[in-house]
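Recap from last week: sequence in, structure out.
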Amino acid sequence: MNPTYFEVTVEGSHDLLKGFVIGFLEGRGISGETFFGDEYELDEENPLQLLFRMMGNREESTTVIVEAELRSQLREALQRRKDSLPLKVVSVREVMGATFGFSVKTYSREVGRSLRDLFSSPPEGVAVEPPFSPEEKIDPDGKGVEAYAPLHEYEMRWKGRVSGAIRETFALYHKVGRFEVVKLGDLHLDYGERIL
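Predicted structure tokens:
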């Protein structure tokens, strides 16, 4: 069974929060999973919010995804340090899953095979829609032509959407994001109950 995760949004310095959370986990010997929003493009800011923050009129906020048992401990630890640390929990929501879109375009058979392996058998709890069926073109006339030429021996194109459990979807997002030929869409969270 997949663990339950919560999105905890904290107002204050991102670096301070990240250091606090890592130190908190290490100091207590807690091995629970924690995902920081900036690593997954979750900390979205519209241009007006960015302008206000740059003018000093608004604190920055950071999203942290934590397992259920860490949620209360982290909140309590931040509450105990509220007088000495300028960090404030402003929102807590249950996270049911995650989704991201992507598109692929490659001229390399090797990269195509690697992506086929990743998308054809996603981790348990993760769905890839539509099922992996890329458009592949093979043109023998392109053999030996330079990489940046308009003609290629092999071309693979495909786009789709991945959705599923947090840990597994985040892991696939990271793996797929390492390929230059993959354009990742924003990672969206599917929310459950709002706690705060």
